[in-house]
């Protein structure tokens, strides 16, 4: 594994279009069929309706052109439901067609049709199965059906599936199964990396659920655990699995407090972020320290651009590539819309108007591009007596944890945030995501809006844009277009051309925006002018 080649290649990589995925569309008639099947005795847990509906009643939407009129018309292909048990090549083909699954690689096992399949095919640990049932995970989602058997088969995995589609369990189940029991002081055998502390905490919580009653020691490399390791109050080798962000991990590794040589299973969640320039060096360092020749590696994200896949290939062993849904689209459970507000002031007006109508159904997440702007909007909304809080990286970890907890419990209705919770966080039942500021890439957009429409629920996403965003809105409109959602933009705003490297970099830098304030620009300008005069008159009077 030539990890240093990764870095040098990373530096010279050309930015290419991101790879996005999505589920197939479920039409109303599909839902009707689903309802009729349910009434015919299907044991469907209401909570899991989405996965069941998807599983048995998907339909192909193939657009074909009418040769006489040249007009695009929709043709519905006869839908053949996937078999409940997948025991042959044709069963696997039917399953993959139904769920728009693409799998590339050698020696690919059949997907599973149920968690029970794992007992017969892989002798799934009974405790793990009962933990899944206790957590109400009764049926696997498409990404779980496909990636669990491949991982248990021993393959490296590159998996790309929509936001909220169950990728966490897709990597946790095989990990827990493969680890078996605690091997006293053997050292860390499973390692999960995530780009943020919030996401690491969430993964750790899910892992605790799955390993309940099992003799495994699971660690979350928090500030406090890191402190204990540094002062030798705890030995790193007592853990079977560690969940961490790259930076915190590499600090204790460098101090010799944690050894990664025994790691056999490595998962990179939100892998495209971990391979992005701001994390690449740390991720590379971690990979370099995972020197076990038997290392099995899995990378997961809802967006895996081609260059990330290239990087991943250079450090993985003949990985199997699993892709669910359509490239370059967002999760179709989300109704997307862009709203032109003209100016910064227009955004506040538009937001206040939204609050007045039925579109604004809490819980709502509002994303802004910077901490300063997040704080400013918070002060505006708190003034409106809204039940609102704000989360960003300047708040302490305790404050951040508390805000997340209060939002989860429903004590906070509107949460203003920065990119810090843009990825992976599984808030239950978010109804609306508002991009107060346009995200700086299509990938960031897909992840941000993916905080809603999770686990089969529907959701909405609204993105405000101003005249300053004429370039930055283009990748977002492209995602809307790929998701077949023409809401809030004119067709002339669509572009067939790929944005140039220069344009993408410019977008990434972010737009300089006027500050958020209810005070109109003219008055602000006037105040500023008077302020300047006031200062110069003071200077004149004091003779300085
Ligand atoms: N088999 C299942 N049955 C029912 N619910 C499930 C199942 N698998 C996952 N879920 C639920 O679906 C939700 C989304 O799962 P998860 O957080 O793993 O999504 P994800 O694909 O990782 O999304 P993101 O890309 O945003 O990180 C969670 O609330 C999870 O508990």
TrEMBL record:
<dbReference type="GO" id="GO:0030490">
    <property type="term" value="P:maturation of SSU-rRNA"/>
</dbReference>
<keyword id="KW-0690">Ribosome biogenesis</keyword>
<protein>
    <recommendedName>
        <fullName>RNA helicase</fullName>
        <ecNumber>3.6.4.13</ecNumber>
    </recommendedName>
</protein>
<feature type="domain" description="DEAD-box RNA helicase Q">
    <location>
        <begin position="117"/>
        <end position="145"/>
    </location>
</feature>
<dbReference type="InterPro" id="IPR014001">
    <property type="entry name" value="Helicase_ATP-bd"/>
</dbReference>
<dbReference type="GO" id="GO:0003723">
    <property type="term" value="F:RNA binding"/>
</dbReference>
<keyword id="KW-0539">Nucleus</keyword>
<dbReference type="GO" id="GO:0003724">
    <property type="term" value="F:RNA helicase activity"/>
</dbReference>
<dbReference type="GO" id="GO:0016787">
    <property type="term" value="F:hydrolase activity"/>
</dbReference>
<dbReference type="GO" id="GO:0005829">
    <property type="term" value="C:cytosol"/>
</dbReference>
<dbReference type="InterPro" id="IPR044764">
    <property type="entry name" value="DDX52/Rok1_DEADc"/>
</dbReference>
<dbReference type="InterPro" id="IPR011545">
    <property type="entry name" value="DEAD/DEAH_box_helicase_dom"/>
</dbReference>
<keyword id="KW-0378">Hydrolase</keyword>
<dbReference type="Pfam" id="PF00270">
    <property type="entry name" value="DEAD"/>
</dbReference>
<feature type="domain" description="Helicase ATP-binding">
    <location>
        <begin position="148"/>
        <end position="322"/>
    </location>
</feature>
<dbReference type="InterPro" id="IPR014014">
    <property type="entry name" value="RNA_helicase_DEAD_Q_motif"/>
</dbReference>
<keyword id="KW-0067">ATP-binding</keyword>
<feature type="region of interest" description="Disordered">
    <location>
        <begin position="60"/>
        <end position="86"/>
    </location>
</feature>
<dbReference type="InterPro" id="IPR001650">
    <property type="entry name" value="Helicase_C-like"/>
</dbReference>
<dbReference type="InterPro" id="IPR050079">
    <property type="entry name" value="DEAD_box_RNA_helicase"/>
</dbReference>
<dbReference type="InterPro" id="IPR027417">
    <property type="entry name" value="P-loop_NTPase"/>
</dbReference>
<keyword id="KW-0347">Helicase</keyword>
<keyword id="KW-0547">Nucleotide-binding</keyword>
<feature type="short sequence motif" description="Q motif">
    <location>
        <begin position="117"/>
        <end position="145"/>
    </location>
</feature>
<keyword id="KW-0694">RNA-binding</keyword>
<dbReference type="InterPro" id="IPR000629">
    <property type="entry name" value="RNA-helicase_DEAD-box_CS"/>
</dbReference>
<dbReference type="Pfam" id="PF00271">
    <property type="entry name" value="Helicase_C"/>
</dbReference>
<comment type="similarity">
    <text>Belongs to the DEAD box helicase family. DDX52/ROK1 subfamily.</text>
</comment>
<dbReference type="GO" id="GO:0005634">
    <property type="term" value="C:nucleus"/>
</dbReference>
<feature type="domain" description="Helicase C-terminal">
    <location>
        <begin position="333"/>
        <end position="497"/>
    </location>
</feature>
<dbReference type="GO" id="GO:0005524">
    <property type="term" value="F:ATP binding"/>
</dbReference>
């Amino acid at each position: 594994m030539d990890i240093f080649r990764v870095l040098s290649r990373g530096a010279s990589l050309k930015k290419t279009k991101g790879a996005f995925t999505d589920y197939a569309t479920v039409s109303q008639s599909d839902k009707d069929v689903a309802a009729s099947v349910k009434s015919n005795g299907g044991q469907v847990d209401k909570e899991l309706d989405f996965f069941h509906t998807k599983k048995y009643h998907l339909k192909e939407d193939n657009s074909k052109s009418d040769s006489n009129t040249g007009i695009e018309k929709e043709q519905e292909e006869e839908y053949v439901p996937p078999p409940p048990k997948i025991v042959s090549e044709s069963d696997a083909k039917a399953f993959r067609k139904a769920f728009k699954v693409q799998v590339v690689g050698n020696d690919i096992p059949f997907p599973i049709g149920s968690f029970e399949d794992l007992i017969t095919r892989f002798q799934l640990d009974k405790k793990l199965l009962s933990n899944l049932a206790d957590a109400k995970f009764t049926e696997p989602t498409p990404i779980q059906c496909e990636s669990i058997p491949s991982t248990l088969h021993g393959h490296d995995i590159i998996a790309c599936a929509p936001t909220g589609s169950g990728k966490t369990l897709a990597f946790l189940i095989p990990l827990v199964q493969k680890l078996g029991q605690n091997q006293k002081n053997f050292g860390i055998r499973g390692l999960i990396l995530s780009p943020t502390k919030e996401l690491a905490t969430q993964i750790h919580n899910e892992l605790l659920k799955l390993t309940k009653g099992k003799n495994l020691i699971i660690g979350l490399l928090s500030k406090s655990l890191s402190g204990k390791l540094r002062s030798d109050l705890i030995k790193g080798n007592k853990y079977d699995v560690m969940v961490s962000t790259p930076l915190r991990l590499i600090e204790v590794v460098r101090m010799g407090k944690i050894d990664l040589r025994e790691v056999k299973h490595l998962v990179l969640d939100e892998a495209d972020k971990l391979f992005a320039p701001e994390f690449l060096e740390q991720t590379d360092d971690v990979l370099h320290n995972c020197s076990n020749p038997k290392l099995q590696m899995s990378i997961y994200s809802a967006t895996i651009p081609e260059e990330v896949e290239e990087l991943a290939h250079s450090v993985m062993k003949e990985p199997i590539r699993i892709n669910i849904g359509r490239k370059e689209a967002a999760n179709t459970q989300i109704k997307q819309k862009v709203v032109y507000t003209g100016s910064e002031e227009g955004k506040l007006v538009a937001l206040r108007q939204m609050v007045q109508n039925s579109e604004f159904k809490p819980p709502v997440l509002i994303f802004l591009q910077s901490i300063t702007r997040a704080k400013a909007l918070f002060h505006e909304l708190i003034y409106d007596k809204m039940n609102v809080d704000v989360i960003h990286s300047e708040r302490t970890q305790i404050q951040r944890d508390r805000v997340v907890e209060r939002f989860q419990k429903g004590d906070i209705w509107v949460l203003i945030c920065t990119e810090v919770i843009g990825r992976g966080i599984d808030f239950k039942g978010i109804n609306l995501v508002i991009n107060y500021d346009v995200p700086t890439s299509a990938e960031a957009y897909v992840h941000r809006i993916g905080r809603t429409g999770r686990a089969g629920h529907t959701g909405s996403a609204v993105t405000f844009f101003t005249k300053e965003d004429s370039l930055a809105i283009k990748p977002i409109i492209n995602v809307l277009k790929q998701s077949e959602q023409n809401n809030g933009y004119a067709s002339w705003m669509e572009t067939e051309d790929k944005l140039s490297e220069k344009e993408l970099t410019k977008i990434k830098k972010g737009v300089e925006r006027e500050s958020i304030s209810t005070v109109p620009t003219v008055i602000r300008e006037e105040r500023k002018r008077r302020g300047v005069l006031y200062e110069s008159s003071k200077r004149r009077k004091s003779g300085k």
